[in-house]
User: What shape does this take?
Amino acid sequence: MLHRRTFVSASAAIAAATIALPRVFAQQAKLEKTKVSIAVGGKAAFYYLPLTISEQLGYFKAEGLDVEISDFAGGARALQAVVGGSADVCSGAYEHTINLQAKNQFFQAFVLQGRAPQIAVGVSTKNMAGYTGIQDLKGKKIGVSAPGSSTNMVANLVLSRGGLKASDVSFIGVGVAAGALTALRSGQIDAISNTDPVMTMLEQKGDVKIISDTRTLKGTQQVFGGTMPAACLYASSDFVQKNPNTCQALANAIVHGLKWLQTAGPGDIIKTVPETYLLGDRALYLASFDKVRESIATDGLVPTDGPKTALTAISSFDTSVKADKIDLAKTYTNDFARRAKDRFKA
Assistant: This one.
């Protein structure tokens, strides 16, 4: 028979354990996969800063994940890795989920990193000194991170608004780092559609004249006519369904990074990102960060009106994407990000 004091102590311990259980399980649900491969196209770009922050600060490890990140020349290459099965998850542009569904391949975004594309289009002040309008780009070479990537998508949209088709120009893959700077400055390309820090560096040195800009929320609204979800983590719908705890852990890590970014100062960023990301110019790197800061997602949630904006934009120039045939509800879920937001108070 239990003594009264022992019984009371045991009851209190059980009660305390019961209270603690939901929190423990919420944070430590058994992961279906602990080793996860993520493909990304141009990791050094601010477009993917939340991924880099979450990696560098150990937030993936804190969630019990062993994440291997493979960096490709552009988002289209990273996408191929995931579709081909050599990577589990893609850190890429949301609109890829729409393009894939148009090909009857179902992929789902489950945490947002960027709420604006952060892509600017500029013409070379050397090769196109007399530029007057979009029509001047006919027959020209336009540098993009990689053909088929979001930089290519934005360039296509800008061309279509000016009455040109993608076939009226030549797209050249130049990456999102030093190679892009070299391609423009050496005259290999006549115009460029790229992310920061590359575009700010070219702009501040007078190498390009910006003709379209989605690095700010206002600029994105002007170009797309609405909110445009950008970088996210997405995977096949099958992967998301089979690995909900793993996806939750990935979303937790990214939202934790987004929370850190909300209050991080320039010095914090410099100390956290790899030195090579600065492209040899700390001051310009930080000037670029100031420019795109507001376009970084705050809580990982895909805005409800964003997918419609993306679909409208893509279907306006890509005839293979039929707006009435796309089920936007299948291209993303906010379930994981919502739980992560609650947990980290993002």
Observations:
- The radius of gyration is 22 Å.
- Residues 119-224 form a domain with the D-Maltodextrin-Binding Protein; domain 2 fold (CATH 3.40.190.10).
